[in-house]
């Protein structure tokens, strides 16, 4: 599975941090909505098209937070 995009609400701390990830695996698209940082709780969504996945991401990024797109790590980096 390849991570394509990552958005962060710009807030630090387990109680306020939110992340949204867009990933691709063959012909399936996956969106992860995570609350609480690395140890937080995630919800996962799967889509059959890139357009549908991006539409879901746009909906998740609505609201008062100032979302920032973070660069995805190149494949094979640690």
Q: What can you see in these coordinates?
A:
This protein is mainly beta. The protein is built from one helix and five strands; from the N terminus they run ββββαβ. It has a five-stranded antiparallel beta sheet, covered by helices on one side. The longest helix has 11 residues, at 50-60. The model has no long low-confidence stretch (mean pLDDT 93).
The SSE string, one letter per element, is: EEEEHE
Number of strands: 5
In what range is the share of β-strand residues?
35-45%
Share of residues in helices: 10-25%
Q: What is Rg?
A: 12 Å
First-last Cα distance: 16 Å
Determine the number of helices (DSSP H or I, runs of at least 4 residues). Answer: 1
Morphology: globular
Profile the largest sheet.
5 strands, antiparallel
Short description:
The protein has 78 residues and is mostly beta strands.
